[in-house]
Amino acid sequence: MRQDTEPRSHSFWDLDELHIRFVYQPDQNEELPVRPDGRISLQLVQEVVAAGLTPIELTKVLVEKYGADLQKPVITVIVRSFGAQKIFVDGEVNKPGMFPILGIMTALQAIAQAGGLKETAYVSDVIIIRRGAGNRPMTFPVHLDKALDGTDTSQDISLAPFDIVYVPRSIISNVNVWVDQYIRRMVPIPISFQYTF
């Protein structure tokens, strides 16, 4: 989750630490984490789904729920810490793994953090896997070859917490692996053997 300077892009994920502040009922104030199931547990309203909501959206939900027990509640949601500021890069990169999001990070910047692309990388259809509604994964391709050659820089999209950037292997490298595994290693070809046409 990013800082509140960009409220349109914020949504809560598990491990975020929240401070729920009640202006006129300070005895209801709470500091609590967003659990791995995306919910928070509160005193009067029990469990509330926070994952995928912005601070403003969560505030509206809490005002509505607390309205049954408190008269005109005024609530503020403050993010104390960001536990979900990580993305994952896998596939044909030199150092696959988990990396922190430092400010706004694009797919190419994430790949650079992962040591860059291998020669076997297929950048025409890099896959982004992102949590959607109900934490269901959504996948969509980005054509980073167009971002790299400057024809469509919008393909180098900004990442969200817990995005997975998967760089597939190119078709030609798959053929080379097949040749290596099933021809060179299985068929005894003399070292001096050469194709002639």
Account of the 3D structure:
The structure is a single chain. Strand 8 (126-131) and strand 9 form a beta hairpin. The chain is α+β, with helices and mostly antiparallel strands and 197 residues long. Helix content is 20%, strand content 26%.
Helix content: 10-25%
Distance between the termini: 60 Å
Task: Quickly name the level 1 CATH class of the largest domain.
Answer: Alpha Beta
Number of helices: 4
Judged by helices, strands and strand pairing, the structural class is alpha+beta
Number of domains: 2
Number of strands: 10
The fraction of residues assigned to DSSP E strands is 25-35%
Report the CATH superfamily of the largest domain: Outer membrane lipoprotein wza domain like
Let me know the average pLDDT: 80
| Main pleated sheet | 5 strands, mixed
Low-confidence stretches: 1-9, 191-197
Name the strands of the widest sheet in spatial order.
7-6-10-8-9
CATH architecture of the largest domain: Roll
Radius of gyration equals 24 Å
The CATH topology of the largest domain is given as Outer membrane lipoprotein wza fold like
Order of helices and strands: EEEEHEEEHEEHEH
Q: Give the overall shape.
A: elongated
Features:
single chain, 197 residues, alpha+beta, wza like fold, Outer membrane lipoprotein wza fold like, five-stranded mixed beta sheet, three-stranded antiparallel beta sheet, 4 helices, 10 strands, 20% helix, 26% strand, elongated, disordered N terminus, disordered C terminus
